[in-house]
Design a protein that fits this description.
The protein is mostly helical. The protein is built from 18 helices and no strands. It has one domain: Glycosyltransferase (Alpha/alpha barrel). Helix content is 49%, strand content 0%. It starts with 65 loop residues before the first helix and ends in a 14-residue tail after the last helix. Belongs to the LanC-like protein family.
């Protein structure tokens, strides 16, 4: 990686992000796959930025960056579908994710003059999504966090509450009633415990609601029941597959390690509710956290257990790799302050600085914004302004001709996890780094 400085660009306020929509060959993608581009040799742009030398970039802070965000929101709202037949994809790549983005922007004081319009638009979008999941015949999909009903009900409650509507209780009640769906050990044949559709996702949604609304949505007994199901499921799988560690899971037959469908986000949610666990259960979780830490290969983690990372072809994404696994170790560090967990996060950040200018678009799942969120995480963990600078550089890159010309086309241009809505969340969080957090993936609660 060259340390040569790139020529400074104009303020973000004068720039806009452009994306080329991909031609869709079907419905929205149901989960984040690792195989779609596995033969690519170069997954990232070269990082030619000089590193932090004690000063942040001018023109990227405060009100100066607001017009760029507003322009991008306007672009998204021209693309988002509003018909109930287009509501598949949940928060991941459905219109409900746009509603969450509008809620997130409306919460930032710098956008106070847009707050009412954004929230009303968010309500229009989420209302249609709620009607869609209310009619979902598959109760398991209604219990899904990022791809189904649980996430949509949670976001609806946040939006209604921000608008001062007493109706926010209705989606909360629908959300709470789903706990019985995901409590049985094997409620999903594909794998019952991961983040997108499984139990870890349901707990994650409850955590977001607790953080944003200040109330515990589920009872202690309900939370314990779900946590115990996750632990028992992991113990059964590890025993059945004769694993040399206590907890393991699979999704569609693959033993994923990353945040999207893997062990790291399952353990992160168990740590988030560790007060609900017995002493023996806590021991199993912490043993598994340390097991996963020991799977590190050159500051990264393979997408699945036992794989060997090919350095020229490694995945450095939130969904698969260090940018997502880092959140587990951040949570572990926040709980017990052991330096090895923070050191692991810092090494992940160094890899992201080298290989995080991803060619797969601007999004948070496997794009540049998802990479840059690691720097905001590290800033909150360490207070080191170097990480704000690095996040600023990644934000700057999103507006360059090199990125526009060389990044892949995106099917759901408007979406939260693959498209511009997640990018907007990142740009807003860059304006308020002390409150920044990867969307819907609470660590600081």
């Amino acid at each position: 990686m060259s340390n040569q400085s790139v020529a400074p660009l104009p303020s973000l306020a004068t720039l806009s992000i452009e994306l080329r929509p991909a031609l869709s060959s079907g419905g929205p993608r149901r989960f984040c796959s690792v195989s779609a581009s596995v033969m690519e040799n170069t997954r990232c742009f070269a990082n030619r930025f000089s590193d932090y030398k004690g000063a942040l970039l001018p023109g990227q802070g405060g009100e100066a960056a607001v017009p760029a965000v507003v322009a991008t929101v306007d672009k998204i709202l021209k693309k988002v579908p509003t018909d109930i037949s287009d509501c598949d994809g949940g928060l991941y790549d459905g219109p409900a994710g746009v509603a969450y983005m509008l809620y997130h922007v409306s919460e930032c004081p710098l956008f106070s003059e847009h707050r009412e319009v954004y929230l009303k638009t968010a309500k229009q979008i989420i209302d249609v999504s709620v009607r869609y999941v209310d009619a979902e015949p598959d109760k398991n999909m209604r219990a899904a966090f990022l791809l189904g009903g649980a996430g949509i009900y949670a976001v609806a409650a946040l939006i209604y509450k921000s608008l001062g509507l007493a109706d926010f209780v209705k989606p909360l009640t629908k959300f709470r009633n789903l706990w019985e769906v995901c409590a049985p050990i094997n409620f999903l044949e594909c794998g019952s415990d991961e983040l997108f559709v499984g139990r870890a996702g349901y707990l994650c949604a409850a955590l977001v609601l607790k953080q944003k609304l200040g109330i515990e949505i589920l009872s202690k007994d309900q939370i314990k029941s779900i946590c115990q199901a996750i632990i028992e499921s992991g113990k059964q799988y590890a025993r059945r597959k004769r694993k040399p560690f206590p907890l393991m899971y699979s999704y569609y037959g693959t033993e994923y390690l990353g945040a999207a469908h893997g062990l790291s986000s399952v353990l992160q949610m168990l740590l988030s509710y560790q007060d609900m666990l017995s002493g023996a259960e806590k021991d199993l979780v912490w043993q598994s956290v340390d097991f996963l830490m020991n799977q590190e290969q050159n500051c990264n983690w393979p997408a699945e257990l036992g794989a060997i990372i090919e350095r020229e072809n490694e995945l450095v994404h939130w969904c698969h790799g260090a940018p997502g696994v880092a959140y587990l170790f951040a949570k572990a560090y926040l709980i017990n302050k052991k330096p090895q967990y923070l050191d692991t996060c810092i090494r992940s950040g160094e890899l992201v600085w080298q290989k995080g200018l991803l060619k797969k678009g601007p999004g948070i799942c496997h794009g540049v914004a998802g990479s840059a969120y690691v720097f905001l995480l590290l800033y909150r963990l360490t207070g080191n302004s170097k990480y704000i600078y690095r996040a600023q550089r990644f934000a700057e890159f999103l507006f360059t001709e090199e990125f526009k010309a060389g990044s892949h086309s995106v099917t759901s241009v408007y979406s939260l996890f693959e498209g511009l809505s997640g990018t907007v969340c990142f740009l807003v969080d860059l304006l308020q780094p002390d409150q920044s957090e990867f969307p819907l993936f609470s660590v600081f609660v």
